[in-house]
Structure formats: structure tokens, C-alpha cells
User: What shape does this take?
Amino acid sequence: MGSMSLTHWLIVLVIVVLLFGTKKLTNIGGDMASAIKNFRKGLQDDDDKQQPQLKADPEPGATGASEAKRENTPQG
Assistant: This one.
């Protein structure tokens, strides 16, 4: 009496299919799948936001070249 056997689950499944129909059950399954996908994507985006983002350092010669040009220009 405690647990249900396979036969009981099959009877419940048949009743659910008769009540809701296969088309509606397919739509519900698709909606659940997209909801789970969006939930996982949200968790992944949340993890990405929590990790510190490292900015790329500018090239060492980039700022030095502009300073060198300023130093070499004759001042009037």
C-alpha cells in the first residue's frame, strides 16, 4: 500500500493523457524545457558577473611612442 507499482503509474499516465491530450502535454513539455534553459542561462550569466573582469593592459610601446614624439618636437 506504501508505494505504487508500474501498473498504477501506467493507469495514472493514461488518465492524464485522456484529460489533457497529447498536444497540450507536448506544449507543456516544451515550455518547461525553455524555462529550464533560461534558468540555467541566468545562473551562468550571474556567475560571469561575479567573477572580476580583467582589462587588457595597453601595449607598452603605445604610450611611450607618443611621449617620445612630444619630447623630440622642437618648441618655439
User: Anything to note?
Assistant: The mean pLDDT is 78.
